Amino acid sequence: MIQIAVLGYGTVGSGVVEVIETNHKSINKNAGEDINIKYVLDLRDFPGDPVQKILVHDYEEIVNDPEVKIVVEVMGGIEPAYTFVKRALNAGKSVVTSNKALVAKHGIELLQIAKDKNINFLFEASCGGGIPIIRALNSSLTADEIDEITGILNGTTNYMMYRMDVEGCQFEDALKEAKEKGYAEADPTDDIEGYDACRKIAILSSLAFGQFVNYEEVYTEGITKITAEDMKYAKAMGRTIKLLASSKKVGDDFYVMTAPFLLGPNSPLFSVNDVFNGIFVHGNVLGDAMFYGSGAGKLPTASAVVADVVDEAKHLNRNIMMNWSSKKLEIMDVNDAEGRFFVRMKGNLADDLAKAEELFGKVEPLEVPGLEGEFGFVTSTMKEGEYHKKAEQTDKILGMIRIKE
Ligand code: HSE
C-alpha cells in the first residue's frame, strides 16, 4: 500500500479525494498497488465530512511520517506551498502539484531536487486542467522538434470571449456571467489580465524547447480592453477573438506571447468554445496536433492530479526525466515579431482611408453597419515595432488586435 497526503481541501483537494474514492479499483489496478490517503492537511475543520477522520492541521505530521511516499499539493499560491513542497522532496517524498504559479516560479529548482533524490515532481494539472499535455510533451512528442505551441489555456476568459461572441455583450456582463457560473475567481485579475495563461505557456514552452522560459519576460496582454464593438468587427471578418498564449520558433529565435487574437475558422482553435481549453502543437516531423478538453474545474483537474499520483506510484524510486534545463531561453523582443494587425480608427472610410494608407501602406478596409464615427482595417504583414511607430503618429487609433494567421 502506498500512503499519500493531500495538502489543501479546497476545490481541487476535495476533487482528488473524490476521484480516489470513486475510481479506487481502477486506480489501484493502474498503479499496481493500493493508494491510500493517510492525511489531508487544511487549517479548517469539516464537521460531518468523512475527511475529518484523516484531517491534520500541522504539516510536521506529514513531512515527518516516513510512511507517506507521495505528497499532493493543491493549495495554490507560492507560500506556504513552496516551502511544503521543497521540504517534502528533501524528505524523499515525491510530489504532485496543480499549482502553475509554483511550477512557473520554482519549477527548475524543484525538478532538480527530485532528480537528485531519484524521486518525482509532476505537474500535469498545472496546464490545461484535465488535458494530458505535459505528459504528451514529455513522452509522446519527444521524437519531434516542437516549433509552435499555441493554446487557449484559460477557461474563464475563453468563456467570456465566447459569451461576447454569441450574445454580443460587453466585457463587464461577460465577467459577471463567468462569476455567476463559478468560473472566475472572486479576484479574477490573473485570468482577465492574462497572467494565468502566461504562466501556463511559460511552463509548456520550457518543456517543449527544453530551456527555462521566465514567465516574467513573456509579453502579456489580457482581455480587459476587448469590447462588444471589437467582436462586431471580428464577426464581419468571419473571425472571433480569443485569448491565445503562444510560443513559436522563428529561425533561431523564439517568441512567447499572451494576448487576444483575431482568429478565423481555419484555425483549429476557432471552435474551442465555452470554458474549454485547446492546445495546438506543431512538430517538425509530426506536423499538427491538437489537444482539447476540460481545462479547469474540480474533477477534470483532480483527474490529472491523480494520474500523476499513479505515475509516481509506478516510479517510486526512479526519476522520470523532464526535458527542462536551467539554461534560460532567450525570448525575442515582441516588437520584432511579424504579423498583420486589425486597427480601429476614428473617422469614416470615405474621408480617412487615405490617412490610414499614408501611415500603414495598403490596408484592407472594413465598415460595420451601426458603428458610427469609426472604421476598421487590416494592415499588411509588418513587425510589431513598425506597427507601433506608425500608430504613434496619429491620435485617431481606437484599438488594435493581432491577427492569428
Ligand atoms: N482560472 C483558471 C482558468 C483555472 O480559468 O483556466 C485553471 O487553471
Low-confidence stretches: none
Please report the number of helical segments: 14
Query: What ligands can be seen in this structure?
Result: L-homoserine
DSSP E strands, number: 20
CATH class category of the largest domain: Alpha Beta
Rg calculated over all Cα atoms: 23 Å
What percentage of residues falls in helices of 4 or more residues?
25-40%
Largest sheet: 10 strands, mixed
Shape label = elongated
**In total, how many domains does the architecture comprise?**
3
Question: What report would you give on this structure?
Answer:
By secondary structure, the chain is of the alpha/beta class. It folds into three domains: 2-129 and 298-314, Rossmann fold, CATH 3.40.50.720; 134-294, Dihydrodipicolinate Reductase, domain 2; 335-404, 2-Layer Sandwich (Alpha-Beta Plaits). It has 14 helices and 20 strands. Strand 4 (68-73), helix 4 (81-90) and strand 5 (94-97) form a beta-alpha-beta unit. The protein is elongated and about 75 Å long. The chain starts with a strand and ends with a strand. The mean pLDDT is 96.
Give the key terms.
ten-stranded mixed sheet, 20 strands, Dihydrodipicolinate Reductase, domain 2, Alpha-Beta Plaits, binds L-homoserine, Rossmann fold, elongated, six-stranded parallel sheet, 3 domains, 405 residues, alpha/beta
